[in-house]
Amino acid sequence: MHAVFNYGPGAHDVTVVDANGYKSCDPSKASKKYSSGHDEITLASGTTYFICSFAGHCQQGMKIAINAA
């Protein structure tokens, strides 16, 4: 299963975080950051958490948790 993120590069990014980073919008312990504007990410089984690490974006709702079987 893949997740595809399309966005304006330089205006946003896709940052993979753990559950705590997702809840607190804290990218400091991110495992991976994507910034191409068109990212296709292979999902592992379980929940993967993504946020935008640009200041204020996650706090305004730019985050998603995806549960893959």
Summarize the SSE layout with pairings.
Elements: E1 2-6, E2 14-17, H1 19-24, E3 32-34, E4 38-42, E5 46-51, E6 63-68
Antiparallel strand pairs: 1-4, 2-3, 2-5, 5-6
Description:
It is a single chain. The chain has 69 residues and is mostly beta strands. The chain has a single domain (2-68), classed as Sandwich (Immunoglobulin-like), CATH 2.60.40. The protein is built from 1 helix and 6 strands; from the N terminus they run ββαββββ. The strands form 2 sheets. The chain has a 4-stranded antiparallel beta sheet with strand order 3-2-5-6.
Helical fraction equals under 10%
Q: What is the CATH third-level topology name?
A: Immunoglobulin-like
Shape: globular
**Multimerization status:** single chain
What keyword list fits this structure?
Immunoglobulin-like, 69 residues, 1 helix, single chain
State the gist of this model.
The chain is mainly β.
